[in-house]
Amino acid sequence: MRALLEARGLRLAFGGVKAADGIDLDVMEHEFLAIIGPNGAGKTTFINMTTGYLKPQGGTITYSGAEITGRRPRDIVRRGVARSFQLPQLFSEHTVEENAALAIASREGIWSPFAPLLRPAWRQEARELLDRFGLLPVAGQRADALNEGTRKLADIAMAVALKPRLLLMDEPTSGVAAAEKMGIVETLVRVLRDARVTAVFVEHDMDVVERFADRVAVWSQGRIAALGPPAQVLADPAVQRDVIGIERPAAGVAHA
Ligand SMILES: Nc1ncnc2c1ncn2[C@@H]1O[C@H](COP(=O)(O)OP(=O)(O)OP(=O)(O)O)[C@@H](O)[C@H]1O
């Protein structure tokens, strides 16, 4: 089986900081791949390079058999690669439904803020999309009135409105209250699996990784330090020490 996304030898340095120092990664069609690693390891840089927001200084990115290295974000989106950001990118003064209609209109090449509001077909599609995410009850609320978990879900719904085949998500659960987190991820995973979307997501919560990722890639100083099924990778003593130890201190440890 051929990979949907193939990164080969990706390199990018900011001054003396090697944010990508030879990244080789295959993302297989329909898999859910989690990226974990300490702050500053280069996880967001990988997403930025893959979606055209940063140009690698070396290496290639191939998507669905075509090289996309250094192409513009809009061109990459058009090919079927969408992303969500660490901070949601919703239009705060618009309702959730208007945001969804705007995203659908942008997929159709229309950027006017008014056109989507006038086209019943896009409003209808927006409501159907929100329904899949369980967001119909907040369809009429302004985006800036949503709690963080709902805002994150709405933001990802906007990316799904673009009908991607590959979706990259930067920390979809960051800032989400612990009690809400699993419900949000369950909804998200159900929608993406139903739509047969391949997903890459940066995640700091190891419970989420363990439960929802098919494979996990461990980033460390611009390189991939480990790659494999969560049960294997998360049990690796080096990963536990260098990644999980920092992010999830062992519960119940007594301190003098
Ligand atoms: N546009 C930029 N200009 C300068 N330095 C940058 C830029 N983007 C990233 N860096 C640096 O590159 C390194 C990798 O950053 P990146 O954001 O990719 O890490 P990360 O693993 O996503 O971290 P975090 O978990 O904190 O989001 C960091 O040292 C960061 O400061």
UniProtKB/TrEMBL annotation:
The keyword rRNA processing does not apply. GO terms for molecular function: ATP binding; ATP hydrolysis activity. It holds the Pfam family ABC_tran. One of its GO terms (cellular component) is plasma membrane. The keyword Transcription does not apply. Residues 5-246 form the ABC transporter domain. PROSITE patterns: ABC_TRANSPORTER_2. CDD domains: ABC_Mj1267_LivG_branched. It comes from the Bacteria. Keywords: ATP-binding, Nucleotide-binding, Transport. PANTHER family: CONSERVED COMPONENT OF ABC TRANSPORTER FOR NATURAL AMINO ACIDS, CONSERVED COMPONENT OF ABC TRANSPORTER FOR NATURAL AMINO ACIDS-RELATED. This is ABC transporter ATP-binding protein. It comes from Falsiroseomonas algicola.
